[in-house]
Design brief:
This protein has 211 residues and is mainly beta. 8% of the residues lie in helices and 29% in strands. It is built from 3 helices and 14 strands. It has a 4-stranded antiparallel β-sheet, with no helix packed on it. It has a 4-stranded mixed β-sheet with strand order 2-8-7-4, with no helix packed on it. Strand 12 and strand 13 form a beta hairpin. The radius of gyration is 19 Å and the shape is globular. The two termini are 27 Å apart.
Amino acid sequence: VDIYPTAEELPENLLRIYLYFPRPMAATEGRQHVALHDRNGAPVNGAFLATNQELWSPDRSRLTLLLDPGRVKTGLAAHELMGRALVPGEHYTLVVSGSARDLQGCPLGGDTIHSFSVTAADVEVPAPATWTLTHPRAGSLDALRIDLKSTHDHLSLAYRLRIVDGRSEVVPGAIALGPEEASWYFTPRDPWRDAAYDLVVDERLEDLAGN
């Protein structure tokens, strides 16, 4: 199972965790097979939002886990009563059980473990003005590289950034993400022309805390 975000340091107001399974999973094989433990191995109860329907992708290969927004967002009753599930300075381990079964009833076969530490809450919105762009050469298929200066939500990076040409048409190509989702790469389908291009940033672009 691939787990996002991949960073080893995550903010205490982390909003989502994504699980990518190697094959389509059964409808009842989601959240109950996921556990969050503190540094002592004790379960962290109530960390994830309990919903009637789990947040699966249409092909049932991606499960989105929401950290309870009532605990994450300040000013809400759950936050005032219980506080955030993640505590700055603490270390946690997310375990996806290998007993989870796919659509054919076959178990995954092995646990997946992702450990991370927690930093202070992130309240800053993404700041494109601070990004560093490494420009490709005209006539090449070199990737455009953008250093984002911080970790962003990987799905948001896939959908909220686009390259357009001088006619405001989207340039076709492939997107890749760097380590810890802190850099963005775009490789065009066709060689870059000796012309001007624009990077279009959708205002809905989010970081790990949903800013």
